[in-house]
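Thread: Newbie trying to understand structure tokens

Hi all, I'm a second-year student working on a class project, and my supervisor (Dr. K.) asked me to get a predicted structure for one chain before our next meeting. I've only ever worked with sequences, so writing a 3D structure as a token string is new to me. If someone could post the tokens and maybe explain what I'm looking at, I'd be very grateful. Here's the chain:
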Amino acid sequence: MLYNLLYPLAGESGFFNLFKYLTFRSGGAMMTALLISFLMGPGLIRWLKLKQHGGQPIRDDGPASHLLTKKGTPTMGGLMMLFSVTVSTILWADIRSDYVWIALGVTLGFGGIGFIDDYLKVSKKNHKGLPGKKKLLLQFLISCGAAYWIASVTPEWMNHHLAFPFLKNVLLNLGLLYIPFAMLVIVGASNAVNLTDGLDGLAIVPIMIAAACFALIAYLVGNAVYSEYLKINFVPGTGELAVFCAAIIGAGLGFLWYNAPPAMVFMGDTGSLAFGGALGTVAVITKHEIVLAIIGGLFVLEAVSVMIQVASFKMTGKRVFRMAPIHHHFEKMGWLESTVVIRFLDHCGDPRTGRSIEPEVALMDLPFAKGKHYAVLGLGKSGRSAVRALLASGAQVTAWDDHEAARIAAQKENAALHIAAPGEWHYLAFAALIASPGIPHQHAAIAAAKKQRVEVINDVELLVRANPNATYVGITGTNGKSTTTTLIAHVLKACGKRVEVGGNLGTPALELAPLGKDGIYVIELSSYQLEAMNSLHVHVAVWMNISPDHIDHHGSMAAYIEAKRHLFDRQNADDVVVIGVDDAVSESVARELIAGKQQKIIPISGKDAVKQGVYAQHGILHNHMAAQQLLGDFSQNKSLQGEHNGQNAAAAYATCVALGCAHDDIITAMPNYVGLPHRMQWLGEVSGVTFINDSKATNADAAEKSLRTFDNIYWILGGVAKEGGIESLAQYFSKIRHAYLMGEATEMFAAVLENQVAYSKCGTLDVAFHAATKAAEKNGGTVLLAPACASFDQFPNFEKRGEAFGALVQQYRMGGGHAATA
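---
Reply by user tm_fold:
Sure, no problem. This is what the structure looks like when written as tokens:
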């Protein structure tokens, strides 16, 4: 309701613009439901105690402890949740959404059935309540109406279909059976949750977990961009159910405050039937019915245990369990209620591992480190990973990070870690100093270690020493490393190879799985990492390109290139170098390597024909390694558009051939590659405007790739400028309709664009976006985020910048393709 009332006022105040964000409204719904539950709880519990006198009737044949611990506790606590969820959802959701009213209707309808059941139990002082057949009849009537309503508002091409997880294009047309199936899902979910609600906290926590999962699912399924990227079915309008699910989470947290052992109130059928039905309804609407059975595995277990018990008793006169549902079976075996609850919730947290808190990170075993003392400098992602692996392998670790927060976090995570400033280190006691990527080699600790001849290495070096028999593919270059790395890994996996991928890409090296002779590590390597490698031997070295970058770290372009050249260290005649020749520096390096005749050299290009190599022209991939061969047309793959991606594809093909993959397998796998976010990522076309997210373009050379690829560009750029600025991009200025400047580089870039490209000084990304889309609406074209800058003036990293751009595109799409007034 607030959305409908306040969002139209967004033009008058920027604050009201917040109400168009689903994430903001979902958070508001959750907090509102939580607050209502906290405020409503004490008074409702007192009133229920007064009206119910003896509380919920306890079964005489149940666990004996229940007669002592649960007697006198009031039921119908679900009323608190129903009220909280209803008010919060109506307040924060778009009340024009049919899906919201369907979900609320089922929730309140089933809550009404549960209320009648609870009322009969309390008033008659009997645990039987409403007869089962009447209860099911009422549930099926409500679910029948809901199923018809859902079918009438769901897009026709999928309104009677069953979707399968991970298989976007596989839809089973149920035809006339769809309505009964949907009814069965809703009623089944309702009763499964009802059966689970027998111990304090046992039902409400899985309800919140499932609601959180379906809040995310509803958001993604209702988002055209994310659903396309994740290859899931797009169901327009389901995003509003994220608000509804968030309200369930908030209400659940509030209820849990009063339901935690020993419970002050029970949910009763009023709540369990209602919210089980709610989950079933959301699953049907989002076409994730099968996923509900996975997320709600505990509910399925409880329901199946009852079915088995009833079937066995009717057919054989014997019971399989001491009592059903199965949680009572374990109580009958002598388990404490709290033990049953904790163990059941522990195994419902993660169906793969049985862990409910945080997934354990795999730790690489480093047998050579046992009993030795190591120093770790830098406690970011790779530094913390090194600390964990070293400690787990029996080493002693002393560490430091210049940021206090990082030191505190690492110490909290590893009690055995010794934190000390480098000035206090006894360097000669260290077997090695593990330096995190990005720490300049001029750092005092590194200088001191080298002076005392202590080996300075990194986490990738530890990986190599721990897995000496594996095959290594190392990818480096200024731009395109990540796309090439993931493309190579994608093809190798499709060809049946055992592959681990990581390094500079994101997953720290020591969190990869150990591999033997049959395994291949595909590692993205930065110049920072390469300059601290003492034993890395890459069997296939992939060098993409070179342009000025990280000069502040290395001191000069020559030093930067020299750091990159360490990729070839320790290679021999059996090894391969795949090297791009589209820039002068790389071409020169390739000539040197060919003249040296130490390795097999395969040149690659994204634009020109190359002898004895692989190249791409206009989206067509060619192989000249032997006889001339046309490999395939990738021009229609939106993840491999542009000359630079042609070079990436050429590198992947050459690498995979060198590793023994069959030609046909490579060509089959490549078109299925889904590109990385923020790397010239196609976000869709709305009202004739195409949106491209190239937030990873943090320098001019990277931005050149997208400028070269597209025409009629409305260019959003700026941030913290890199060395060289954007002068090198002048040859593409004729393709730019208008430039929209933001961040620190505004004045610097404006001076370059003056009298060449029309530009506007926008300050921030949102202002630039609205101005660009408004201009692009008139003539069509491409709104391109290719900042040619680092993001640190306005965003923590390029990922957050790209996510913000994606959110703006989604808002534009939700607004019907009309630019908001900046």
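A couple of things are worth pointing out once you decode it. Confidence is low (pLDDT under 50) at residues 60-70, 347-361. Residues 22-52 form the longest helix (31 residues). Feel free to ask follow-ups in this thread.
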